[in-house]
Every structure is written in C-alpha cells, then in structure tokens.
C-alpha cells in the first residue's frame, strides 16, 4: 500500500479539502484531537464507533476512509464528499487519475457538469484530459477561465479556496494549480515560503498579477484612513486562517483580538459589509468596487499560481501559460480595479 492509499492519508485529504483543522474535526466527531493526529499519522486504528463518527463528520463512509484501498475499488477519486445523493460532477485527469468534483459545489465559472445521469457519454462532455483545475480565491478567475476556453478549446475549472487550502489541494494532487497571495512588497517571499513549507521542492509558480488588498466599508461611514478607522469601535468580518486577507487583517489589528465571525472568500466579506451585518472587512479592491463599497488600501500582494514541475510539458499547462501571457488577457486584467500586470506571465522556480 502506497502512502496515498493509507487510511491516515485519506483522512487528512478529506479533512483538508473541507477546510477543517484537526481540532475542528475532533469537535465535530466527538473524539480527541490527539486521536485524529494519531490516526492521520498511522499510529492508531480507530474503534468502530470513532470511525463511524469521523466518517459522518466528513460526509463520507467508513469504507472510503478506512477501507483497504484494494485495486478492485472504483478508480475515480472524489475530491471531496458530495452533499447530494447524485453522481453529477466535473471530471479531470490529475496526476494520473480521474478526479471527480461534486456539482453540489459550483466553481467560480459555472458550467454544466460532465455526469448528470448514469451512462453519460464521454463524447458529450469535455474530456477529462482536456480539463485544467485551479483552486484560488481570485474574483476575476472567471475571466481567465473564459479566455482560456475561447483561446484553446480546453476547459479551466476554478474552485474557490483560500491560499493555504489551495496549496493543500495541490499537495494532495486534487488540482493542477494553486493560487496564493501571501507575498507583499514588504515580505516578497511570502508565497515561496508557504510553497516550501507545504510542498517542498519540485514546484514552480507563474505570476498572474499584483493586486491591492485593503479595507472595505459602506460609503456613508466616510473614513479617510485605516489609522482613523482603528480609533473607532467597528464590527469586523474576518477571514479564515491561511488566507491572504487574514494575513492583512492581522497586520492592521496588530495585537487586538480578531473578529468572531468569518467569511470564506472576498465576495463573502463584501456581502457582510454591504448588507450592514459588519462595518468593515478585508478583501481585494475589485471585490469592493463591484459592490460599490469604499476601499482603503493596506498592501500590494503578488498573486501567483503554483504547479508541479512535472506538469511543465502538459498541453493544458502550456496553453494556460500562453493565455496568461497573451496581450488580450493582460489587457482584460489591467483594466480591473487594483490589478497590475507588470509581471504577469513570469515564471518563478521553486528552490
């Protein structure tokens, strides 16, 4: 049994793609964090009761998590448990296997799923080996997916994930590309540091843009500076740990306690502020501009897309890089609020 076939690996994979920490999974399943750690590390075989509770908490079955992984099982792999009793999904060949993405979660660029009934013919859908999958939180990713399809005839599926979640999905070979924006002008190695820590060597990155991240608030508030805002008691909407927005928020809050409530993407922050549920939050300028909110910049961030070096000769990745470097795409992105394409298309080799 290879490491990727062990129950501990499968447990960690299911947990990370759902964005759960070991502590959160333990709380959901009613087991100790120590037990979760030991099971993922292969040092503990869970009891029947614990296995059932953990599988239920992750929305999957005991067999999927803790079965023997024999080759007689279905070759296709679900990226995460489907919340519907349905086989409706998108399909892509990733690292030598077919990964299925439940249609119960809509990518940023919506499309008809490949399999919406048993017996669907492959000729009726885009082939899995002509599909590229990227996890990221860029609100403009739909533009890239549309441009990619128009220019190449291939398909780009975009899954909304934070920087850390995207890198974890890449680590587990559930996506081809992971978008991250932890690098700033003050800390230019932020992206490469996460890649080295989570992935090690054998990865490269292509820069998509620099963008502005900062504070959004309703225009009626009339704030003129972030410093002025920090002198006022505000209801903040937060972001999850591992996201670029959380990093930015921690910077301006300094040692103050963080918000009690969080959103899971830039547009979630915007919606909380726009509806008055929160007074302020952190997101990139584009998301705030779309909703007509005021924006005060805090930092410029480098948005990079990471990929395994072994994928460099893949026809899908070559097409992706060509589109990113094209004048048409760069023009579309440079016209967006807060985006800078001065380094778009440059390749950064991992150490």
Topology diagram in text:
Blueprint: H1 7-17, H2 22-29, H3 33-40, H4 48-57, H5 62-66, E1 77-78, E2 89-94, E3 97-102, E4 131-136, H6 141-152, E5 155-160, H7 163-171, E6 177-184, H8 190-199, E7 203-217, H9 226-229, E8 236-239, H10 244-253, E9 262-263, H11 266-274, E10 280-284, H12 285-290, E11 294-308, H13 315-325, H14 327-334, E12 339-340, E13 347-349
Parallel strand pairs: 1-3, 4-5, 4-6, 8-9, 8-10
Antiparallel strand pairs: 2-3, 6-11, 7-10, 7-11, 7-12, 7-13
Description:
By secondary structure, the chain is α/β, with parallel strands linked by helices. The protein has a domain at 3-66: lambda repressor-like DNA-binding domains (434 Repressor (Amino-terminal Domain)). Helix content is 34%, strand content 23%. The protein contains 14 helices and 13 strands. The protein has helices at residues 7-17, 22-29, 33-40, 48-57, 62-66, 141-152, 163-171, 190-199, 226-229, 244-253, 266-274, 285-290, 315-325, 327-334, and strands at residues 77-78, 89-94, 97-102, 131-136, 155-160, 177-184, 203-217, 236-239, 262-263, 280-284, 294-308, 339-340, 347-349. Strands 4, 5, 6, 7, 8, 9, 10, 11, 12 and 13 form a 10-stranded mixed beta sheet that branches. A 3-stranded mixed beta sheet has the order 1-3-2, with no helix packed on it. Helix 2 crosses helix 4 (48-57). The longest helix is centred in the middle third of the chain and has 12 residues, at 141-152. The radius of gyration is 21 Å and the shape is globular.
